[in-house]
Amino acid sequence: MSNPSWLPAALPRWLSLQAYGLVTSTLFGARTKPATMRARFERFAHVSRAALQKKHPALRFDDHKLGTLHVESVCALAEPRAVVIHLHGGAFVFGSAASYRNRAMRLSFRLGAEVFVPSYRLAPEHPYPAALEDALMTYQYVRALRPRAPVFLSGDSAGGGLVLSLMLRLRELSAPLPDGAIMLSPWLDLSVSESSPQRQRSRDRWLTHAHLASWASYYAGAADRRAPLLSPRFAELGGLPPLLILAGEHEILLDEAVSVTASAKRAGTDARLLVGPRMQHDWPLTLPWLEESRVAWKAMRAFVDEGCAAQRRNA
To answer: 86, 211, 250, 281: which one is catalytic?
Structure first.
């Protein structure tokens, strides 16, 4: 009997998602200590500049010191057409510019941009609003450093929610807003009040309600967890630049993405939602070889293209 026609495409996807679930659930459990998760992620994801430049000789790195805050810039092109400030994921507990170096390189190459990644302060040592303060400092610095370039924000997971919090803070300050923002699998509700259907919970191969509740306690501390700058799901979202929100069909954060997209649209903000069929949390960055990831990257590229064109028209 011959194999079904769907098997060649479906099998690699199935194997990738199985491996993803095994690795993430093993290394980053709901009760794993923050220091342990941090050390594991750095060992798992860290790649040296020399290793990347050996493979990609044109790749350029630079260091930016903003007091005690370190920001790394990555550029894979001779003439980038835009700037992207990427706020990394990691539940506000783990992640750094070094462990996001490979992902920043991919963002630079695929979006045609110079990418800046701040190693913002992490919880529980530095609870809210430490990450937001560092994100704001990075944004102000990059705007001054590249005053004529189109500037976009991007972020994944906790960093995706931080992107929206940063724009709300900029709006409060009447400061210039970015030309657009991309949020991949954003965590938008640290009150952990969004009720995902039971079917959704059973499909997520990593995240559970226990994960979110535990991690939220590290970053939120004693703050009101429904405060809009902490949980932007509860914010009024008018007056923001265009938003592109991506979420996996099978991740428990899907409902938050759907809710915030609808809220932004009601407030008059251009908000678009791309749902990755059968996909898990943060799939374009963690599983970039899948066809579903290639579709997501094309959408992100088109979004940046559109934002650059609008910035040129308004210049």
So the answer is: 281
Contact at 8 Å (CB) between 157 and 89? Answer: yes
Out of 251, 256, 292, 293, the active site residue is: 251
CB 185 within 8 A of CB 250: no
Separation of alpha carbons 283 and 306, rounded Å: 23
Q: Which two tokens stand for residue 108?
A: 């630079």
Q: Which domains can be identified in the chain, with CATH numbers?
A: 27-314 (3.40.50.1820)
Phi-psi region of 239 (alpha: psi -120 to 50; beta: other; left: phi over 0): left
Tokens, residue 206: 């990593």
pLDDT above 90 (res 54): yes
Please tell me the number of Cα atoms within 13 Å of 160 on its side-chain side. Answer: 24
CA geometry: angle 249, 86, 293, nearest 5 deg? 35
- 85-114, pLDDT tens digit by residue? 999 999 999 999 999 999 999 999 999 999
Which amino acid, one-letter code, is at 110?
Answer: R
Q: Which of 73, 99, 108, 157 is catalytic?
A: 157
**281 tagged catalytic:** yes
Q: 251 catalytic, yes or no?
A: yes
